[in-house]
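Hey, resending since the last one bounced:
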Amino acid sequence: MKAKKCATILLLLLMFIPSATIVNKAASQYAEPNVLFIDPPSIVNATLTKGFQVTIGINVSYVEGLHSWQIKIRYNPALLYTNYTALPSQVSLIKEGPFLKTSGLSTTFHTYLEADYAFIACSITGTDLWGVEGGSAELGYLATITFIVLTGGETRLEILSDPSDARRTKLSDVNLNTIPYTSQDGYFRNVVSGIPSASFFPLPTFPLWGDEVTFNASASSGLDGIARYLWFFGDINFTTKKENTANETDPITSHQYTYTGTAEKNFTVRLSVIDNMGTTGNLSVRVLTVVSSRLQQDLAIVSISVNSTYVEPGGSLAITVYVENQGNSSATSNVTAYYDSTPIDTKTDITLNVSESRPIKFNWNTTGVPQPQAYNISAWVWPLKNETDTSDNTYTYGARVAVTFAPHVSFTYEPASPYIDEVIVFNASASQDPDGTITRYFWLWDQSTFDATNPISEHSYPTGGTHYVALTVTDNLGASNSTSQWINVSKLPTVVTLTMSPIATVGLNTTINGSISPTPTTANVAIFYRSLGEDIWNCLGNTTTNIHGQFSLAWLPSEPGTFEFKANWTGDQKYNGDESDVIRAVAKLSSTISLFVNPSSVTLGEEVSIAGSISPHPSSEASVTIIYRIGEGTWNSIGNATTDQNGNYIYSWKPPAVGVYEIRALWDGDDITHGAESNLARVQVVGASSYLTYIVIAAMVAVAAVAIALFLRFKKKVEQC
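The structure tokens again:
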């Protein structure tokens, strides 16, 4: 039994070894214990668009004796959504972390959701004498919250610890004693730029119970305008038991605060704005004090502006300090402006009425101010005798101004005459800073921006025309200077070519071919024609290029003549159009030429008559060339014949030698008719001696035949005798 108890104790010790390890890790991360923080502290990711989920942990560093905790965390509900449910059948996005469970005891876990914050509470069930010790990366999680992204924007994730709020962030030990802690808020953003900014003020500044309080958010701003104003007034609706809210499209709204039984109460009013693109900015928070009577004085510096972020040594800088009377009576005081801790000037006896805001002008002469150096501009309104809130009398971080010479800025670009999609090299190497170094080159190409540390950047334009280029250079102290140029980007030039056969035939299709170079994706080409000597071009037709930039169109000439052609395309967003050179083509009628030879067999020395006709017959005399050859030999000229008015021709020819001749006639055509070749004709030519021999043989055969006949007749008569 004793061994079993020892084994049990050893097992319990082993269970707590991981917590000790995590404590060491947390101790190395934070110099002090009891740090309550959001993990990760910052989520900046433009890909977390609508519908994505992000999970944060509420973590604690090394803490001793933690028995229960409660946390109130505020976020922008227009940007992030979360829920909680105790029903097992439903998914809860807020979950208890593992920290208190390391005690081995059971815990209770509760969550309450309000308009823009979640209140989470957890405690160990029972009376554990020591609570839980430790805390680190994972086992230090008190809770995790999963948010569903609703739109684009930014929000702080604030751990709220107002001592007057029962639902505040608090750590407690087993005796319900508060464990002191420090907290670190979180941050979420899922857009790169263009986040709208919420700003508002109430009138009256110190309203009485039941007053109609006007909240004016006209100072809110956004590049895409403001579409909606989400108000959280900080008081509870007695009917719904929920916080009073409003969703407005007008920047001005109003609200009444119902008397709660106390002479004075603070209400935390929050505003979130949503622009026309659906992007929401961080909550603007302002504490409104509702009182039974107005007996307070309060002057505050609300902002500081300067006319430049740098001033050259010895030069002057204009500073404007905005002072506001947030009290309930008029007040008179002095305002002092500073660079770092050195006074610039003091404006005395500044009187402001209730709720009045006034700009106070200062001129800072930097003669003798050490340079090059950057200084923080701040201001202080002197406290009033009856002022109870002096926390806003000092505006510490008003502006950062460098006393330095501005950098010189210039740039060149190559090529000097760029085309669409051509890479242009922008070179700002000639820019210099006389008393420091240039650390930033900010380029503006039309609506496109590029932030670089290198003076050389590249850009191309997808469209032609005149484009605006601006460059702002910033030195190591924040002084900047800008310059700009206009750059002309040309469309890419093209060349249209056109070809076709120079001679066409009436009634037969002739193909017109062409191409566009360089090749556009698809181009519509119009082809025009006219008769030679005419001024007016007629459209023959339209065609489209293929993927190689080639096009073609069929032409069917209906009458003979000489015609001119050209092709044209008007270009597109990337390419300039072009018109081809003018080409000419002659359209002629087709013709035939016949050939007859008589006789087809002659004796050497006799003439052969060669005749035929051209159809359609020429309008004037035409020369017909007659050629011959023997066998497969070379063609030789017989001679030329001339047609008559009907297109007929005739030619007499004596063959020069014995043989079989092939004869052909041809003519070259004229201005309106194509030439043609005739059919082949054959002539056999024999020698004269061969002819006489044939006659003698024939005579001898005939004499012999007569002799035989006489002999047979004589023999018959003898036999009869």
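The radius of gyration is 54 Å.

Sorry for the duplicate.
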